[in-house]
Amino acid sequence: MSRTGEISEIWRFPVKSMRGELLNRCSVGYKGLVGDRGWAIRDDEAGEVRGGRNLPGLLNSYARYLESPQAEPYPPAMITLPDGEELMCDDQAFNAKLSKILGKRVSIWPILPEEELDHYKRLPADIAEVRRLFAREEGEPLPDMRDFPEHLRDYISPPGTYFDAYPIHILTTSTLRYVKSLNPESDWRTERFRPNLVIDTGDEPSLIENSWIGKTLYINGVELTCIRPAPRCAMTAHPQGSDIEKDPKVLRTIVKDADQNLGIYCEVKTTGQVNTGDAIEIY
Fold first, then answer.
1. pLDDT tens string 207-235
2. Architecture of domain 2-282 in CATH?
3. What is the model's pTM?
4. CA distance 193 to 204
């Protein structure tokens, strides 16, 4: 094994596509950080669980747990709405308030058992809709999704979870420095890209984590298998709250100069706990 960096940030997102919480430590299970994407929003008018690609207004609310989750079912999260009001997500008034903010009828749901397949069903989408969700301009390619799990063609997430494809998303400081060097005018804060772990890999700008695909990261006893780069969609360009502005140039840079990807997806091989400052070894 060789050391490749250390954890500089740990992010958990209690509600899919809402802003999350910065932690000093977190338990890691086979479904990722314990409590991550423990809740999600269903578009009751469309009949589908949806995230920020379809409901970008979700990015203007914050979610955090008042008590540390230990196992499913996860506790309700406290939501800070765009106007500053705080409301528990299981409050009877929550769905009506969020529906008014988003301009459509929605409801919040905890993770349901993987056998509840109808809950996770994906609606059909034509190529025009896919291009809209990925915010690709004319002449820009769509991500090659052929090596993603086949069940994602039918379901919005692996049933029994609310993460997009794989349980852990990793981003490095080297990658952020690389894209910032190409487009210094844009805001490249990690919150825009919603990683679970940010790894400090030093000052050299590069897409270093792409070289980890197929390898294993060892972190304080936790082992993560690096599966594939993470293709980026419209969410990277959306505003988040009052401090992250809309910026389509972020996505244009990623599509043109990073082969449409930023960060990598991982699966959990061995569970445990991770902490900020933990060394990252690779083998």
1. 999 999 999 999 999 999 999 999 999 99
2. Beta Barrel (2.40)
3. 0.97
4. 20
